[in-house]
Amino acid sequence: MAVRITCINKEHGNHEGPHVAISMLGRVNENTNQTGKTSSVEMYNWIKQGGQAYVRDAYGNMAYLIAKMSPWGNPFVQTIADGRPTDNLLYLVGCR
């Protein structure tokens, strides 16, 4: 099962990078229309265990999330497109 990420929330403060600052991700299962929010750490663990999540742009292109670890040992997720890390998550609107 794959879920589409629809929005993000960031923690305020000094972070080692913008992706590490993401604290929550809004998601929708497009097969069931079930929605919810997941913490960045929960999403990291889910992806590490084989789950899939993606961001879809206005043209319908999908960029899948990958689980990464910062040099300081903080888990985070980031999108990858065409084999390169991208900022698709950072362009999403804030979750309500």
H and E order: EEEHEEEE
Give the termini separation: 24 Å
Number of domains: 1
Count of helix runs: 1
Structure, briefly:
It contains 1 helix and 7 strands; from the N terminus they run E-E-E-H-E-E-E-E.
Would you give an account of this structure?
The protein has one domain (2-91). It has one helix and seven strands. It has one helix at residues 40-48, and strands at 2-10, 22-29, 34-39, 52-56, 62-69, 75-81, 84-86. Strand 6 and strand 7 (84-86) form a beta hairpin. The longest helix has 9 residues, at 40-48. The two termini are 24 Å apart.
List keywords for this structure.
96 residues; mainly beta; 1 helix; 7 strands; 9% helix; 48% strand
Blueprint of the fold:
Layout: E1 2-10, E2 22-29, E3 34-39, H1 40-48, E4 52-56, E5 62-69, E6 75-81, E7 84-86
Parallel strand pairs: 1-4
Antiparallel strand pairs: 1-2, 2-3, 4-5, 5-6, 6-7
